[in-house]
Amino acid sequence: MLFNDYPFLLVFLPAALLIYRLADPYPQARIGVLVALSFVFYAYGYPPYVLLLALSIAINWLAALAFGHFKRRWIITAAIVMNLAVLGVFKYANFAAANLGLLLGRPMPHLDIVLPLGISFFTFHHIMYLVDLRRGKAPLYPADRYALYISFFPQLLAGPLVRWSEVMAQFGQTVYSPGWQRRFCIGAAFILAGLVEKILFGDGMSRLLDPIYAQAAAGPLKDGDAWLAISVAVQILYDFAGYCDIAIGLGLLFGVQLPFNFNAPFRAASIQDFWQRWHMTLMNFLRDYVYFPLINARILPRRYLPLQSHAATMITMMLCGLWHGASWTFVLWGVLHGFALMICALWRRHGPRLPSLAGWSLTVSFVLLTGVIFRAGSLEVAWHVFQGLAVLPDLEHGRHLLPLLLAPLAAFLLPASQDIVAFFTRRPNVYLAALVGIAFLALLFELGERDVHEFVYFKF
Amino acid sequence: MSSFISNSDRYPASDWSRCLTAGVRAFLIGVFLLSALIFAVDPYDSGRFGLLGITGVDDKLPYTANASRARDGRFDSAIFGDSTGQLIRPAELSPATAKHFVQLVAPGATPRGHLAILDFFLRHHAHVGALVVVIDDPWCASSAAPSADDRFPYWLYGDSTLTYARHLFSWSALDRVFQRIAIGLGQRKRFAEDGFWSYEEVWPPGSRQPSDAPRPPGPRLTGTVDTVFPYKDRLASVIRRLPSEVALVLVVPPVFHTFLPTPGSQDAAAREACNAAYRIIVAGRPHSNLINYRIDNALTRDPKNFADLIHYRADIASKVDEGIIASVRQGNAAKIDF
Fold first, then answer.
1. B89 backbone φψ class: left, alpha, beta (φ>0; ψ -120 to 50)
2. What range does the domain containing A306 cover?
3. What is the pLDDT of residue A454?
4. In angstroms, what separates the C-alpha of A451 from chain B's closest C-alpha?
């Protein structure tokens, strides 16, 4: 079910709010009701995969229980391997087979697999919990609470990646405790901000960019359209940040504060700063569960620690790229960002201090250019876009594409959406609230006008 | 990071409650008012709602405007097809056949779209006089699988009121609401009541014509050609339900001679197989005929008679009108002067 579609906004969400309002006075019913609602939400798109989700929850919870009882570390290792294997089969099997076929010089069979929505996200949720359980940081939880951690519908399909410690204690609390009215106002503001980001900016840019990338698939871009094509990273930002803001708002309506995932990344003054602002929950995951273990492992002698650190950065970013999709372009995108982070770290240590504006320009240019590789799907298409940059934009020809310039400007100039929401909800304002109600209505009309676009991160 | 959410608040809960109430109230009042307006007017004049009784639309887009025309009780006969049927004039056909024609072509639509309009037309007319269907190349496709980029509004022509209602909450629907209110107030006029609009208004004679450069010959026929035409089957099943006295004229539209397949080629055989399949639909029906204008003659060799390879001009269109009139009168015994 898509957050930006009528079935969710006009049927599921009001029904879920009503049902949960009825369940709220009964503490023993709260978690069960939310789990049931989350499963209904997940089943809407492709019902058979509810079984996969249920099985995944059951097996991981049983593994945690077995570990709690027998204290055997291999149980957790086996569960993590199983999670990665399931992810591998659904997401990477065809990629691996195609590359193996290239190596062996003969075609390999292609599996006709539909990628289950959100599999990368719920797999990582399992892994975060299991690793912390083995480290002795996480306790055992009852099945219903664990099921809700994995399946909580606002964050089930595309994050944010939530640590068990951030939400477990919030589950099962009454939503209608003192102050719920303010939380609902903030939640509504987040949902509105997310819908604006997604529908007006993300989808609006997508409609203009998709034909340009379709042209790039056929040959080098003409008429300077490539200068507009490089704004695709901004489109991805609005698409994903929009989803996350809606998720945060929905979480608040059900009594759960989810972590923020973006913090105005296009205002970053360095690539390190960028990665502390972009998809922050994924970067926290990679830092804690990939980068730190690689740093802390005694692989190289102590004097080579900086080398190990750079190698850990490269591996982490390569995996970050691969997590986004089974394609060499994603891997290359990750490797390029790994290099940039490495160069940035070396520059900070050995180079002169760079003026903020220069740092910002370099960072934004790098992110925009690598965004082309991320979006293109193949190196050939990306190259066609880069070749097109040799031609200056034809303003007369591309006048209808000018909106593509406005969205990046907003990304460069505006603060993070949570800061905007904080500003507008710092005190109750009835007129503003009425405007929000009218804005929701206007967005519903906008949704009716256009075809519903899937969120980009559903593919990951 | 989320501190502002969990910060203690110095404003009383009742103030925030008032905000929630104001937001929800504004939303619901807006929904109520706009819904009332939309359902009272029925923006596409589809006949499903429309308590105000406004008739017709001022809509330049045939995809959406055809719903209003297709249910207009003044017409009992209709022309369906792509832009290659756009110059067929209801004003010529109606007096000559004693029927009342309306133009329901949908340029750029697939046969699925044309069949949806045909179905809608038939649902709104207990008595049907004649149907003209322009059978151009897409009707000969061997697959009728829906296309992902098909933008035809099937929701407007389907039989689900709920699906239709779901599409009324859009800016373009709201725009048509105000257009129709203006029609009701007499401030605007209906656009093209019989649906006829000539593309020669955009491409006047002499402004453009196809190149006479010969095209490379297609591959020669080897073996057999595909004889599966799913759109033919769909059209046949619709026509089968109609009384045999309903005239049906299938028009294979003329094209510029360079666009014709080379005689003896795979393409020529495929087109002939397609024509033969559609001839079966009209066989045995009086006042029905398939007219194949896709021939090489002096008219189709003159570039002045075409705006491009497939869009013919008024001189040829009048010949097509004559053929349709003759066919409605005499069925397949009609003499086609082309």
1. beta
2. 181-459
3. 53
4. 10
